[in-house]
Every structure is written in structure tokens, then in C-alpha cells.
Amino acid sequence: MKAYLRILRHGRVFRPRLAAAFLLMLLYNVFNVFSLALTIPFLKILFASDTAAALPHPGDGSFFSSEYTQHWMSWQVQHNIQLYGKMQVLYAFCAVLLGMIILKSIFRYLSLWIMAPIELGVMQILRNDIFRHLSYLPLSFYTRHRRGNLMTLVVNDVQVVQEAVLGTIINLINDPLTMLFLLGTMLFLSWKLTLFTLIVLPLTGLVISRISKSLKRRARSGQGSLDTLVGYLDEFVGGIRIVKAFAAEQFVRNRYQAINHRFTRTMTGFRRREGMASPLNEVLSVGVVIIIILYGGSLIMSGNSPLGSEEFIGFIVIFSQFIAPLKTVSNAVSRIQKAVVSYERIRGILDQDAGRTEQDGGQPVTTFQEEIFLEKVSYQYAPDSKRVLKGIDLTIRKGETVALVGPSGGGKSTLVDLLSRFHDPTEGRILLDGTDYRQLDPHQLRQRMGIVTQEAILFNDTIRNNIAFGRPDIPQAQIEAAARIANAHGFITQLEGGYEAMAGERGMALSGGQRQRLCIARAILHEPDILILDEATSALDSESEKLVQEALDRVTRDRTSIIIAHRLSTILNADKIVVIVEGDMVEVGTHAQLLAQEGMYARLYHLQFGNGEAPGDASQG
Question: Running DSSP on this structure, what letter comes out for residue 428?
Fold first, then answer.
């Protein structure tokens, strides 16, 4: 139940409405109990004798005792029958009963009307909280979690929680109120019979409790199987070209069918246990009613019961209504047990530390004036892993073009991630104009940067919105100007729809070169002080590379640029070339200086230009 209360905390804003709904439920239950209690006078009307009873007097001095109330009710029925006749009294009784039922139905509907936006609002806030937190989590989180698992969590687990929340909030508030009112009425009629009922009834709760615990275990196992199923499907869709290229369709089908079989087997067990709860609860409830009828009936027939026949039948009617909310609550608890498993997985995301690199606040970053200075910078992804970067000392002055080259896996991309503050250094520090990165607002820092990655990432939106990503109100003229600089305006105007044409899922409606040029346009539209190019031309054919490189040459002119070089021909004119090998900065200098040193850079250069530009790439990483 603690986990369920944590779910409801997401809807704290709805407390005033919840109080109003509670009041309406209270009124509903008042009229509900009175309408049920009218069963007793109804039976007295049907079986009333023609002889009027004497006006009762409270023998024990109490006008509120059960015995006095029952005698007084009998006297009222018989007295009114003598005055108005049995049919007239029956008509009046039915009118009162109808009025009470109408009033209780109105209050019930109004409480549901208020609760509907509360229940759905809780889920809206929960979904917003999840997405907001996902947007704050650092890149390291996404490298540790499969995309398919996250999709299952955000879509399926939230849906499971929603199914548990919808209806259960009002059930868990209204049904205990209903049981409390009914229990009070039963105690008033006969505290001995009520006590006997409360001794027998917990047997039902014990059985349902054990089933609920079993459901929770199976639900946790089922969610894990679904994670695996969706994760494998996501990998299949993302790697469909490889599946087709290696003719591995049957292989992936067999694996998927095996995973699907395990999931189906787990969920079959869950559904069987879930299906057992309702009929078993029904049997146990009827069994309790039969036991009460036998016990109460024996007392009446032996003359030892303070209840008359009409009161006993009324007691049974009220008790039967007591079972209904009890069953509803037990069913709600079963649903909640499944939802708790999903919510625990959601809390696993919400409780993830966003890390210092994503925290709002810090010193504002308005401009880049002088230099970025890396002082003894080292980094390792985990405390027990090896260092990816080792004591890097580097100065990047404003307006410089700095190229990072070296063998694959040397740490170039990690260094760029540190400069973008996707991570903080494990050791050492990075200074921007003399201020430690850790003291700066990370979001304002990245706003001063334009990043173009090796993989051209676009969204399933219009060309215009992809270029203006994050800035929806920017004028069309500026978007077109950025597209011209990126060599993209020409092909955009030839598309059907032009700038309003859809880029497709992950930009698949466009060629690789077109996608990359849109990414360049997106980067320069933000007018960054620092441009980071992470192997931006490595995946392109020669013609596309030429167009993209022309765009990059225009973009990097008079701008601080940090380039991870794929082909050395693209960085021959760099102001500073940094060679990184296994996390160490082994060489720094211009192209001419490094060639003269005949070190690692010279070897990489001769591999590519020994007999003209060689195929392959020893520098990729």
C-alpha cells in the first residue's frame, strides 16, 4: 500500500477536489444506508397486524437503544396503517425510498464526476514526471539501459499503473466508508451477530491476501519477460539490414518465438491466479452469509435473539451489501499488486540521480571570450574500470580549429563529451574563460555549442522543425539562411512540400548526405560560439562528403571548432592537431610540425596518402 500512496502523491495538486469528492461520498453513504435500512419497515408493512401496538417506553432510559428503536418503528408502522390504510403507507414508503435512491445516485455521480479528472490527472502528472526526469538523466544512463526496456517502462508499465489507478482511488475511499456505515448499522441492530460476522469474515481476507502476494511475484516475472521481448523486437527493427544481409531471418524468428513463449507461459500463470481470485471470493462470501443465516436463524427459532424476523432479514440484506464493497476492495488490491511491480520499476528511473552535469542553476554562460583550458583531465566510466583519458593538458583558444585524431578507441569521443559536459572529469578540471565547468549552468553552456555527430539524428517531423529544433518561433528567413550555409537549401526546395516536407522516422526519407547537411544547418542556426564536429563526414560517399565538407568549411570559418577527424585531408589546415592514443595525448602541433616529428600522426598520414588517399581509416574512433 505504501507504493500505491506514492503513486497518489503525484496528484497532490488535486487535494481540494479530493476533499469535495470525499464529502459527496459521505453523503452517498448516508442515503445508501438509510435506503437499505428501510428494508425493515417495508417488511413490517407487509406483515403488520391489524392490532395497534402500545406506544413504547424506554425501559433502560435510552431513546437510542436498538430495542427501543425497533419497538418505536413497529408502533409507527401500525399506527400509520390504522390512520391511512396499508396501501397508503406502502405508497408513502416507496416515495421516501425512491427519493433516497435518487439522492444517493446523484451524490454517487457527482463524486465520480469529480474523481474522473483526479484519477486521469494523477497519471498525466506521472507521465510528465517520468519524461521530465528522463530528459535530465545523463548520457551514461542511456548507455547502461536498453532502449527497448525504457520503451516498455514508459509505455507498458505506465499503462499498468493507469489501469490500477482508474477506479481504485474512488473504490479505496468510498468502499471503506460504505463498509463503515454498514458496519455501524449492523452493530446497532445486533452487536452479538455483528461480532460473530467479524470473526468469520477475516477468513476470506486471508485467502485473498495470499493470492495477491502470489500475483505480485508473477507480475514482476511477467514484466521482466516483457522487457526482454520488447528489447529484442527493438534490436530486430534497428538491425533489419544486418538480419537480411546475413540471411538470419529464421535465426531471429526462433529466438523471438522462444522469448515470446517464456513470456506467454509466465503471463498464463498470472492470469490463472488472477482469475481464481474472483470466484473464490464469491464462494467464500456466500459461505459466510450461509453461516450467518444458520447462526442467526437458530437464535431466532430458539427465542434467544433480540432481533425479530424482519430485523434479521434486514440484517442479512445489509450484510450482503457489506460484502460487495469488500469484494471490490479485494479486486482493487489485486490490481494494485500488479501495478506496484510496475511502479517500483518506474521509481527505479525516477530515483536515478540526474548527476551534477544535468543540474539546473550555476553561473550563466553568455559568451565565450578567451579559451577553454583542460588541466590534468582524466576520466573513467566506472570506479573499477580503466581510465579512458589520462591527464590531458590542452588549451583551445577562441577562433582556433582543433582536430582530434588517433586510433579507434583512444578517447577522442570521450574528450568531446567532457567538453560538452555530458560527463564531468574524474580527475582534473575544465575551465571556460577561467571558470570551472562544474560551476556553470550546463544548459546555457551547451547553448553556446553546436554539435554535429557522425550519426545524423533527425526527428519524424518537417524539415523546417528539424532545423529549428528547440526554437519553434524562429523566422523562416533565418532557417533558410542556415540551410544555404549548410548546402541544404537546394535539395530542400526540390522536395515535395519544401521545408514542410517530412523527414521520416530518424530522417530515413532523406539520403545520408542530406541528413548530415540538415544537422549542420540545425547546429549553425543556434549561432554557436563553439562548433563540435564528431566525424561528421565519415559515413558519406565522395559526392556527399564534398558537399558536406564545403558546408563545414564555411561554418568553421572565424569560429572555434573542435573536430574529430575521420579523414586527415579534412584537417590539414587546422590550427592545432591533437593525437590521442589509449587515453594519452601523445602529440600536439600543426600538420607540418607533426609530419616533421615523424611520430604517430606521420604514420597515420602516410597510411592515407602514401600512394594517394588509401582506403580504410586507421584514425577512426
Answer: E
